[in-house]
């Protein structure tokens, strides 16, 4: 008789153990998924960090004034576009993308808030870029204005006639 009473209790205990085991399996599965998601996010962040590091290294390698000194505090790629009148030698061998960056870097230096996502995303990775103004035309120096026109002429030769920012 004692055995008959124990059987339902054993069955109940066994059922509880199985249920809790499946709950643990579900929890383990959820934990593994979350862990995988976190690792993926961490990997994405590391990739972004490496990309930014490569960009900054590339900037520092090409970031020299005409006197050979690096521009302290301004790690832009084309500081000369705001510092002196550019010549055709300065721009004639640049790609359409490089010309576009050079031209827009002039605006970025003054804190222009880019409307085009491509330029906004590009300059947001630059430590020196602080977007503050919707219009910086009045802040441009005569040198910068002339350089923008020169760059545009070379861009149009390469087929870029979209100068929107």
Describe the structure in your own words.
The chain is built from 6 helices and no strands. It is mostly helical and 165 residues long. The chain has helices at residues 2-62, 80-83, 88-91, 96-109, 117-124, 142-157. It has a domain at 63-157: Methane Monooxygenase Hydroxylase, Chain G, domain 1 (Up-down Bundle), CATH 1.20.58.1690. The termini are far apart.
Q: Compute the separation of the termini in Å.
A: 89 Å
Instruction: Provide the low-confidence segments as ranges.
Output: 59-73
Average pLDDT, rounded to a whole number, is 73
SS element count, helices? 6
Layout of helices and strands:
Layout: H1 2-62, H2 80-83, H3 88-91, H4 96-109, H5 117-124, H6 142-157
Helix pairs in contact: 4-6
Q: Can you tag this structure with a few keywords?
A:
165 residues; mainly alpha; Methane Monooxygenase Hydroxylase, Chain G, domain 1
Brief write-up:
With 165 residues, this protein is mainly α. The protein has helices spanning 2-62, 80-83, 88-91, 96-109, 117-124, 142-157.
